Amino acid sequence: METLAAYKAHLREIGKLNSALTLLQWDQRTCLPPKGHEARAETIGKLAKIVFELGTADKLGRYLEKLEAEDDLSLEDRASVRVVGKDYRRHKAIPPSLFERFAVARSRSESAWEKARAASDFQSFQPHLEEIVDFARRFAEYYGYKENPYDALIEGFEPGMTGREVRGVMAPLRERLVPFLKQLLAEGARPDTSFLRGSFSADRQRALSLRALGAMGYDFAAGRLDTAVHPFTSSTGPNDVRVTTRFVENDLLSSLYSSLHEGGHALYDQGISPELQWTGLDEGASFGIHESQSRLWENMIGRSLPFWTFFRPILTQVFPELSSPSADALWRAVNVVEPSLIRVEADEVTYNLHIMLRFELEDGLINGKIAVADLPDLWRDAMGRYLGVTPTDDASGVLQDVHWSAGLFGYFPSYMLGNLYAAQLFATLQEETPDLDARIARGDFALLRGWLQDRVHHFGKVHEPKELVKRVTGKEPDSAYFLSYITRKYSEVYRLAERG
Amino acid sequence: METLAAYKAHLREIGKLNSALTLLQWDQRTCLPPKGHEARAETIGKLAKIVFELGTADKLGRYLEKLEAEDDLSLEDRASVRVVGKDYRRHKAIPPSLFERFAVARSRSESAWEKARAASDFQSFQPHLEEIVDFARRFAEYYGYKENPYDALIEGFEPGMTGREVRGVMAPLRERLVPFLKQLLAEGARPDTSFLRGSFSADRQRALSLRALGAMGYDFAAGRLDTAVHPFTSSTGPNDVRVTTRFVENDLLSSLYSSLHEGGHALYDQGISPELQWTGLDEGASFGIHESQSRLWENMIGRSLPFWTFFRPILTQVFPELSSPSADALWRAVNVVEPSLIRVEADEVTYNLHIMLRFELEDGLINGKIAVADLPDLWRDAMGRYLGVTPTDDASGVLQDVHWSAGLFGYFPSYMLGNLYAAQLFATLQEETPDLDARIARGDFALLRGWLQDRVHHFGKVHEPKELVKRVTGKEPDSAYFLSYITRKYSEVYRLAERG
Questions:
Q1: Which residue(s) pair with A242 in the sheet?
Q2: Domains in chain B: boundaries
Q3: pLDDT tens track for A208-231
Q4: Which of the listed CATH numbers 2.60.40.10, 1.10.1370.30, 3.40.50.2300, 3.40.640.10 matches domain A121-500?
Q5: Closest residue in chain B to residue A226, using alpha carbons only
Q6: Which of B20, B220, B224 has its CB closest to that of A47?
Q7: What is the pTM of this model?
Q8: Which fold has domain B1-93?
Q9: Which residues 6+ apart lie within 8 Å of B367 measured at CB?
Q10: Looking at the complex, does the CB of residue B274 fall below 8 Å from at least one CB of chain A?
Q11: ipTM score here?
């Protein structure tokens, strides 16, 4: 197996340079002084070019061809060949000259989007978005698909998943969530959140985030917490996984929940088997599976009553001014439901409705059934139907997300799938762990973390998302778990049963 | 001039990757979590290999050959060809297999040194050092030299300088400093330093360092201050120059003077002409010239009476407990002279004596006149003669510096030359600026900084160190300036005149 050794050595070279790239990008968003950005972009560009060249090298193509014909590869080696081979072919599928033109158009489109959003002026962005949609459609043709060109784009974020499947899990959500939201707002008892008003220093917010991350079992000897305008997690391998958060002075929950969310991502990356480092498998199974881990910690744990039973004394230690509300009151307050215009501020009940809207528009755009010019109206219309709120300008409507300006079509479904996977995994975990709530209530997360690591994190990209979910839960991805979780929890938070 | 364009493009590629390497190394010393070091070393190794390959590419050799024959290159392009060509030939001179063996031996030697120093056990380190000295002697033969193999090594740090010249400027220093030190200690009035005792929080020390760096004119939009065990400055270009310091709770001066020192290095790197970035000339003229800038700010400015006239109100603002001592008392206290065993803790008067000792031993080692086994005794003997103190163990003697374990022979002279260059540059600056003291006393550093930038920083590596000193001061490097500065200043600090 000389080929296998040469193949692995080649992936290690790529992996090391990717680690360098990741660090350069982490630094760009956390440490880099303002004047350093121009030169940094050039350095990143140069390194990215080397990585791209190594990832599309003919040599790699030959290794893949030979290894794909091998029968006796280990599970991991077969997975590596699958994952690397898929990326190789997707990269090779796009003619370099087309990709170069796209890179230029994307850069212009991103700047145009920034200006358009600031001025709430969709028209100035429209021609750029038309160009980008056109590129995305051409890419889909080059990548290939069976049924729907949109599938070829979803594949880049959620391997093995199709638009038809997303639509399948989405239908019951729409059917159930839209009326449930109306019921909550009409009949429910909105939690009191008044005691969360105040001014909270960044230092103390930071201390609270550190306590939360520590309790989760985030390994600070293999990571660190920094601040960033848009919080993110960055990993160069299981031994260096960095989280970021941001501190909003009058919003204590913003940094805490962002830390729990990023902490969930980070536990995933810290939990990937070290043996997978630089093999092409040292990442999460998909964007959706990664998001399932962040949402599980942020919402299913972090917004649960047992969590607040455990965390309330820590909160009041750091913020003595918050000593009055009980664990129950805190739990209700962090679960307030508020239909809003902005996806990233959405609560658990409304979040997926934001995604549905985007999914439908993307699907239409890529299939040529929706014209870019019609997006603002379609957006307003869907917001009204799903959430009962209507943006009065495009900045808080169709221009709010960066994704489309950068050509990231097919990404949004992963946000929704993350919530569904999380609920499905959590249901299995609860079934297997009758005393889970009691453990959480005393801050004992070891079993929970170990379970997630053994069943999910450990494998990196070895299994495709659907396969992974089925291995762990015994079932195909199904939105029933999420619906049951949401309706049960929010009926309690909003005291629907008591009232009904 | 197609060759020139291709040559420059090649250097830009190297430059960008070197910027990535610099950032990886900065992060390694400031941010990297403990468990991340192993993978980081591999990433750095991979990137360093690519940079080395590009820097020794045959293509580059052909460009250099053609450009060296060109008559009409600009001053900067000629300098680039000189500097890059020299590095190219030095790298090519060493057979790759020898260099690889050296890299392995160095890595072993560095670990052995760490253990040996911790145990104060020279014998366990001796065979490693013998091996490293042997490599250094072979390298010197490969590099080539006219008179003294040691010259070939000095050249790597101080281009155009020889052992003979270093000996030339050193002789008057030894002759004058050894008796002057004795006189100071015997007849001088040791300054009172008792008021500097106390406990000073890292936060306040940091605030003070930020004030000092701000006053110097360090551009925080093109840099930042972090902490590191061994403070250093890191530059990926004039728009991203980062300084570090460390906070010792009971030693306020340690962080302040380390910040002034690194700030001096940083002003140099921020002041290099942006047009030189990634041309091979975007560094200081030499290690010695670089050190001249750090020592000038640390000592000639930062340990002057005018500086303390300006800085005392800032100090007492941050540390109200230090309100009693006058500017004069503070100035004297920061200039206390104390012969000590450790170079990095040495004051201005004794520092160069530490270097002399190392210079003489290095010269002997590389010329085969001194055996490694004799170093501990020779060290003790010289310490007694020059400084009047004798180490009782090797940890505070011959094992104190990391340099030799890493094969860095020829580096030490630059530390001394830095002090001499600084004094010579400063003498010229004073001559041209009669009101310099008054400006410093009111915290107006703009003219001083501008002068250094115009005369020194701006040029990067365009001029060799001796040439640069001559351009600015009109004279060859001469130790008379330093001697005059030291004897005048310390006679005052120690009130020799008043007493004598």
A1: A234
A2: 1-93, 105-500
A3: 999 999 999 999 999 999 999 999
A4: 1.10.1370.30
A5: B31
A6: B20
A7: 0.95
A8: Methane Monooxygenase Hydroxylase; Chain G, domain 1 (1.20.58)
A9: B148, B149, B150
A10: no
A11: 0.94
